[in-house]
Amino acid sequence: MTSSNISSVHFKNADFLRDYYNNCGLSPEIKVESSKSFDYKKTTYSMDGMYLCSTKSQSGWGFAKQAVTDVYFISFTHAGVSDWEMGGLGRVSVSQQMCIIDSANLIQGHYTPGTFTDTIMIEAPLLHREFSALVGYPCFDRLNFVPVLPKSSKTWPLFRSIVDAIRLYFDSGQDLQSPIAASYLKQALLLTLLESAPHNQSSSLSTKTRHAHPKFISRAVDYMQHNADKPILISDVADYAHTSSRNLQIGFKRYKDTTPMRYLRMIRLGRAHNDLLADSRSETWQSIAAKWGFNDTLLFAKYYLQAYQELPQQTMLKSTEGIIK
Fold first, then answer.
1. Among 61, 211, 258, 304, which is least packed, fewest CB within 10 Å?
2. What is the pTM of this model?
3. Per-residue CA distances from 272 to 75, 199, 286, 306 (Å)
4. Which CATH number is associated with domain 1-210?
5. According to the CATH classification, is domain 211-325 in 2.40.50.690?
6. Looking at the DSSP assignment, which residues form a beta bridge with residue 57?
7. Where are the chain's structural domains?
8. Where in the numbering of this chain does the HTH araC/xylS-type domain appear (predicted)?
9. C-alpha span between 10 and 42 (Å, rounded)
10. pLDDT digits (tens, 9 = 90+) for 302-315
């Protein structure tokens, strides 16, 4: 966390709540129980791509999602009932339970009067980058979590201990706050979610013995993910990761069982694969290869065949056929 802040708002009028979300660019359709006076409190702890929101709703209200968002909500309802409707999953109601919602599937939500929740919002790209770093290779399949965890699940107690530590961090005041300590709290939340909450990629974590990797490995992976379309030297990655090129080589061999440049190649192949699957009639596969740093098209085709068991032109042909249909 390079920057963090805390904000608290108290809404006694539904119109103020509408304005608040409109200013955030979300613009949901707010649904208020007209027979109740409106009262909703929200405290938000912001942590660079991750947010902790504590809410208390004395009056019942709901919303229908309007804007496109790309986040995961990890919500625990301490009191009252939270209702969520998700495409493909239908409606779920939670009370004293943990619910994991993919905003891509979210249709609407509702809180009964007296509902108290803690919700962690994590930007999907951030979570997917962390998962790729955790398993040691780029993963382009979206994570699908089991939406509701039973009350006996140990995931939320783990989460709550970190949530309490985050609140203590913010309450400690500017003089005592440490960006390094804050970054570890953020990392702990991500790892706890990925390792303890069941999802469609859980087997990737359980089928291999993993060791906690140093921070410079995570920084190196993050740099590669953000700069895959640019010319990158190993010295560039090492500088960003605050280590030497030699140490970076040793670290990737130990923790990723590959070299930094081979890891970067896997990322670039994945990006090229996504482009080939998209509507790419305006581009050739050779131009896509060049876009992702493969100037030798024959070598690109060789690597692509090894990774996806087909040639790039075959992937593009299948994509074109799908568009025609």
1. 211
2. 0.66
3. 35, 26, 10, 14
4. 2.60.120.10
5. no
6. 40, 115
7. 1-210, 211-325
8. 218-318
9. 6
10. 999 988 888 999 88
